[in-house]
Amino acid sequence: MKSNILLCALITLVVCSVSAQVASHGQTLVAKQTTAAPPQPTGKPVARVNGTVLTDQDLLREMYTIFPYAKQHNGFPKDMEPGIREGALKMIVFEELAYQDAQRRNMQVPADKLAKAEAQFRKQFKTNTEYQQFLKSEFGGSEKALNAKIRRSLLIDQYLKLEVNNKSTVSVAEAKAYYDKNPQRFEYPEGFAFQSISIIPPENATPAQLKDAKKRADDACKQAKATKTAEEFGLLAEKISEDDYRVMLGDHKWVDRSKLPPNVANALASMKKDDVSSLLQVEQAYVVVRLNGHRAAGKAKFEDVKASLIPELEKRKTNEVRAALDKKLAQNAKVEVL
Question: Could you say which of 5, 221, 265, 322 has the lowest number of CB atoms within 10 Å?
Answer without folding.
Answer: 5
